[in-house]
Amino acid sequence: MPSYQQYVINSRRAEAQSALMQFAQAMERHYAKKYSYKGLAVSDGDTGVPADIFPSRAPLEGATKYYNLTISAATENTYTLGAVPIAGTAQAGNGALTITSSSDTCWYKDQDSIPDDKSGCIRWKG
């Protein structure tokens, strides 16, 4: 049973990685029109929950969500997107994920927040 549970946890993390890649594509589509990544969070903010550009939780399909999707940082020409496990779900404690405008990816195993210094980054392929 434990190996099946680990499989499920890993597959949910893979779904969050896929959602982040799709989120990054949405950011790129917006940039192609407006030449900026700024102002795409709620209330025209540069960080936080995405506004109308993309859903705010993953997986994208299904009723049960395991990750909050956020814009961690945005400037005119760069961004960092994050997927943070939702507290109280089976993914809690499995680590946050990030992807940047330069396709730099990280999984912060056992850290349910995104550190400022990228300490503990484990690369995943996007």
From TrEMBL:
It comes from the Bacteria. This is Type IV pilin protein.
